[in-house]
Amino acid sequence: MKKLILILLFASILFACQTNDDIPLTYEEGTNEYINDWIYTQMKRYYYWNESMPGKGNLSLPPKEYFGSLVNKNDRFSYAIHTSSAETFPQSLQNSFGFDLSFMEYEGQVYGVVMYVLSKSPAERNGLERGQLITAIGGTALSQENYNNLYQNLLATKDAKLQMVSYSEKSGFTVPKQINISQGFSFLQPVLSQVIPYQNNKVGYIEIPHFYVGLSKSLLNAFQEFKNQSVNEVVVDLRYNGGGDVSSATALSILLAPNIQSTNQFIRFKGNSNGGEVNQTFKESLEMNESQVSFEALRAAHLQIRRVYVLCGGHTASASEIIINNLKPFMEVITIGEKTVGKDVASFPVEDDRIVGAQAKWVLYPAIYKLFNANGEGNYAAGLQPTVVLKEFQELEVFPLGNMNEILLKQALNSMSGNRRSIKGMTIQTLKKQNLNVVSEPLVIKKTWP
Question: Which segment of the chain is annotated as a signal peptide (predicted)?
């Protein structure tokens, strides 16, 4: 009896000493508090900037808003989505219609120039082509005062109504026509490659729109054809490549880099105190998401080159920037165009799997790792400056990608003969799209820690 009394007395003292903070709170399933408490826990564990995060704060906020309240002010890329809520997904014309615009002014007229059109996209099916000029959106003519608002409206609509003209130096402007495009899906994009005879060189040109998982086979085929045709210079067009799979980017690097071994370090991931540092060789980085194409097969298609020309710009991000930064320890990388996005972070998806079998769930894409090359060089959040600075749109006539008259490719070809001075075009003012979030692909890596 005395022992029982002592045990009960000790237990009551312990209970009395507990504070409210010692008692874990539980929330009703499905409430904002239930979701946001989970979000906070995951961010505290995985987020690169976890030590600068605020306290839990107001857990009753909508989850998208709550997630944003935890994100570091220098972080442009972390986001959260709900798998059954389309409005939580990053918005872009590429995702909605399969194209994107830049804006420019010439002789007092504002034009939207079509930068690219994805293959088999709603835009392509309705006749949109790179280089076409948009003069009105939704029936409203473009001007200095309204082009940003009209672009924002275009992002939010499901049906695009565009007034178009085309221009060539030889024949001038065409008659305006209207194109109507409805939202739809665009699927995996093909790699475009060709061999260009130029002076005493055979130039292999390859345009890669996205580093999707499994791209290695297509890259291998393209480079094998380059090798068959004795290519001795390579131009890689990444100006509209927003990133994707690190293994596919590694495959391209293996094809390009001279004198490398499978055991050479290729990439370094630096995380918070929980994640630590992960160093990967070329072989390890390739095999994260690639099982069909080996390091040895890729090396067999390597060309006898010591340098590579990379065409880049304000849409070059993530895995594309890895190509530029992580090849530098192994070869000369000559970049031509404009400053890249500056996405020097990697993520892996963190899913809310507390409800077994649930299809609708929150998925977080927080910045988990900072990226560095084999020499420890990284920290390019402000973007990578090109070797040759050159604006893509300097003339009203815009040539297709891969055309020898296209301004960035033309500069690369000129540089091969020793002329690295930027090509001068006519006076066109490029207009900036204001207050727009950068939409790029999360750098896909496998989850390397619990």
Answer: 1-21
